[in-house]
Structures are given as structure tokens and as C-alpha cells.
Specification:
The chain is an alpha/beta fold. Helices cover 31% and strands 25% of the residues.
């Protein structure tokens, strides 16, 4: 009996994308399906990114399932990656699929180290990657990748980005190296914003799966300029275990929430230390707040980066650590971080399989929450009281800091928006903004 296209697709519907919650046929991953008269089935799986963490599993399972069909003599499966519609035309960025900001509100937490190693890890996983150093006052990228004497070139109106080990790069440090200028960059905010604009949008990035932006610390001119210039896909926030870092990282998360940019991962740097005499992790700087951040904001992707002296030395030597020490503990963390970024970008593109719904009925003065088909109403004032932000809940004890008596008579939501794949953001009538994780809303909302 000859196998048909419908037979093949029915078999492939058994393969579910674990992050999107749909099968690969309904996700339109299966392309160029052909069946020869001799029973040879060939097709390609067009994934959301070449860095898809489950691509080999998809390929092996697809081959096994189709090969089991009567009449199939051989199966040929190839992998490719699709390109979504451009986020918005912005000169040299129109062929960039996803733009990821790596940010921190506090300096010295290892943000540039995370940005560089994340970029090179994504490239190692098969993605087309660019890395933009947005720090004008203290650009570190040339030193960290060992290219401090780069001469920039032009192709028509475009700046040609230097490449290093397959990653396209741009930094103000390359500009000063080309011009022969040295010394500190002394300029006011408007000039900095203009330089950022020119370097980012007039560089010919060509086709990229990910453009990683290494932001300077804080939430000032540069961050606001970038958010206005380009549609950020998501943010990776870097922190450390100290309490002061927790306070700052919350500010950064709230900053991106205000811009409606989802925080897709949090990295706690210098989180653990492994000595030479045991394999037990030591917490040199205390317990940290990674679990608190995950519980309060609903993130699924939190990573603890260990203290490794070689990691710092790699930044000074000009070779990214994931290249010089691919089997180290830190490189394993960066590998997991890159896979989570790829998954979250894919989910942002396709959306969750069964997203919760939160609707405000102004006529009835009630909120309606629907989770997996189950609907219930919520008192808006009680939900406002259960806000989990640092202004409403003590950062370390989890105790509520406001009561019903502290709130005005009537509280209503002015705006409700889904934040990434993890939470609802609500702007309240008392001028407060809250984040409510989906999982908490399903079980903990009043």
C-alpha cells in the first residue's frame, strides 16, 4: 500500500513542541514534503531558530515515526530555520529577527561578560548572531574579544561590522581605534544618543537570528534611546546575590515592564563557588534573591553563574570563556541560558498554547480570569492589595507592606497587558503598576 501525504502528517502530529504546546504540523514546521514512487519520504523541518534546543530530537523522532509507516522505504529529514517578518524597518536592522537586551541597573555585576558569552554560545548552537556594545563612555567589547585595533570600513552608506569567530560586532571602541583617538569619551547625553543611533541603525547587520545589546548600567538616556530606536524582543537581567543588587534588579525589571519588554531570563552572577577540595557549592555572598525574583515575577528562567577566576581572565585575554573552556561549569550555564533565550523568543513569536485571559468589565466593575477553560471573578481592590512588587512586599520577608486602609476607596485597572510569557501587567487607578505571574494568578489570586 502506497503511503500518502496525509499518512505522513498524521504521524508527525505526534511530535509536540515542549515549549509551545502544539504539534509540529499545526505549527507549520513541516515543509517541502515529497514521496517518491519507491516510497522514499523527504521533508524539512523549518524551526524558529537554528539554535532550537530540541532540533535533533525533532529530527530523530520524525524519522522514526515516518519510517514506521507501511510502504516507506527510506526517510530523509533536513533542518532549516524560518525568518519571521521583520520587527519594523530600521535601516540596517530590517533583517534582524530578535533583539535581546542584556541589562543591569548596577555596575560591576558582570553584565558584559554575560552578553559576550551569551552571543558566542548562540553562535556555537548554529544561530546567526550580532553583538552591539552600547557603552559609549567605557566600551569593553574590543578588549573582551581581542580586537582592539579594528579599522572600520564603509560599503556605500553602511558601516561594515567586523566579525570575530562568526559573530558580527559593533562598538564605539572600534570608532576610536579607527580614528586614532584615545582617552575618555567626554560628551553629554544627546550626543551619546546620536552616536548610539548611528552605530546601531547604520551598521549593515544583514540577516541575524539574534542581535545582543550589551547595555550600560542604569535606566537613563542610552536605555531609553535604544527602546525608542528598536523593538526589543526581550531582556536578560544580570544581578548578584547582594541585597543592594536585588533592589537594583527590581528597578531594571520594572523599567522593562514599563516599556512592555518582557524579561526572559535573570542571571545571578558570582552566585556559587566550588573550591578545589570538594564538589559542594559555597555561597560566598549569601543566599541571594533569585528564587524571590522568580516567585515574585513569575520567571521560569533563572541561572546561577559560579565564581571562576578563569572567566574573568578570559575577558582580559580576548577569548570568550565559552570558547576557551567549553566544558567548564560557567559554559554549561551559558549553554542553558542560550537555550532558554531561544525557547522564549520562539514562544513570544507563536504565543503559549492556552494563554490565560484577564478581562476588566467596567460596567459590572469586576475582573474575570480564565485559566484552561475555568472562569472566576476577582475583586480588583483585593488583587491590587496582593501586588508583589518591592513597594508593596518586603523584599526579604515577603510580608505585605500595605493594607486595605492604605488604598483609596475605589481601585480599577486602567490597562491590562500580557508581559512576555509569564505575567500580567496592570496599571491601576491609584497610579501604581503591578506584575502578576500567570502561575500565581491561577492559584493565588483572591
Amino acid at each position: 500500500m502506497a503511503v500518502t501525504e496525509a499518512d505522513v502528517l498524521d504521524q508527525l502530529r505526534h511530535i509536540q513542541d515542549p515549549d509551545l504546546g502544539k504539534n509540529i504540523v499545526d505549527l507549520n514546521f513541516v515543509k517541502n514534503l515529497t514521496i517518491s514512487t519507491q516510497g522514499v519520504v523527504s521533508f524539512s523541518l523549518e524551526l524558529t531558530t537554528p539554535a532550537c534546543p530540541v532540533k535533533e530530537m525533532f529530527k530523530e523522532e520524525a524519522s522514526r515515526l515516518v519510517r514506521a509507516l507501511p510502504g516507506v522505504t527510506d526517510v530523509m529529514v533536513s533542518l532549516s530555520s524560518s525568518r519571521p517578518v521583520a520587527l519594523k524597518p530600521a535601516k540596517g536592522l530590517e533583517k534582524v529577527s530578535a533583539i535581546i537586551a542584556v541589562s543591569s541597573c548596577k555596575g560591576g555585576v558582570g553584565k558584559s561578560t554575560v552578553a559576550v558569552n551569551l552571543a558566542y554560545t548562540l553562535a556555537l548552537q548554529g544561530a546567526r548572531v550580532g553583538l552591539f556594545d552600547a557603552d559609549i563612555y567605557g566600551p569593553s567589547l574590543p578588549t573582551m574579544i581581542g580586537q582592539t585595533a579594528v579599522s572600520l570600513s564603509m560599503q556605500g552608506q553602511w558601516i561594515v561590522p567586523p566579525q570575530n569567530r562568526g559573530v558580527k560586532l559593533m562598538s564605539f571602541g572600534f570608532v576610536t581605534a579607527s580614528s586614532g583617538e584615545a582617552g575618555p569619551a567626554m560628551m553629554r547625553g544627546p550626543m551619546v544618543s546620536q552616536i548610539i543611533n548611528q552605530l546601531l541603525t547604520q551598521t549593515y547587520w544583514d540577516e541575524l537570528d539574534y542581535l545582543i545589546l550589551d547595555l550600560p548600567p542604569g535606566t537613563g538616556d542610552v536605555q531609553l534611546t535604544l527602546s525608542q530606536l528598536v523593538p526589543l524582543t526581550g531582556a536578560v537581567v544580570v544581578t548578584t546575590p547582594q541585597k543592594i543588587s536585588y533592589v537594583d534588579v527590581v528597578k531594571g525589571i520594572q523599567f522593562f515592564d514599563t516599556l512592555k519588554v518582557p524579561t526572559i531570563a535573570v542571571v545571578e552572577n558570582m552566585s556559587l563557588f566550588y573550591c578545589n577540595h570538594c564538589d559542594h557549592p559555597h555561597k560566598l555572598f549569601g543566599e541571594g534573591a533569585l528564587d524571590t525574583l522568580k516567585q515574585r515575577f513569575g520567571y521560569q528562567n533563572g541561572f546561577q553563574l559560579p565564581v571562576e577566576p578563569e572567566l574573568s581572565a578570559a575577558g582580559d585575554s580576548g577569548t570568550p570563556f565559552v570558547l576557551s573552556s567549553p566544558n567548564s561549569r560557567s559554559s554549561q550555564v551559558f549553554d542553558a541560558l542560550a537555550q532558554s533565550v531561544a525557547r522564549e523568543v520562539s514562544k513570544l513569536r507563536f504565543g503559549p498554547a492556552d494563554p490565560p485571559e484577564l478581562v476588566w468589565d467596567s460596567d459590572a466593575s469586576k475582573l474575570t480570569l480564565t485559566v484552561q477553560g475555568n472562569t472566576r471573578t476577582i475583586d480588583p481592590k483585593l488583587l491590587r492589595l496582593r501586588c508583589r512588587c518591592a513597594n508593596c512586599v518586603h523584599e526579604w520577608t515577603g510580608d505585605a507592606m500595605i493594607s486595605l486602609q492604605d488604598l483609596p476607596g475605589e481601585i480599577v485597572p486602567l490597562e491590562i497587558a500580557r508581559v512576555g510569557n509569564y505575567a500580567w501587567g496592570i496599571q491601576w487607578s491609584d497610579h501604581h503598576r503591578s506584575l502578576y505571574p500567570f502561575e500565581w494568578m491561577a492559584v493565588g489570586a483572591p
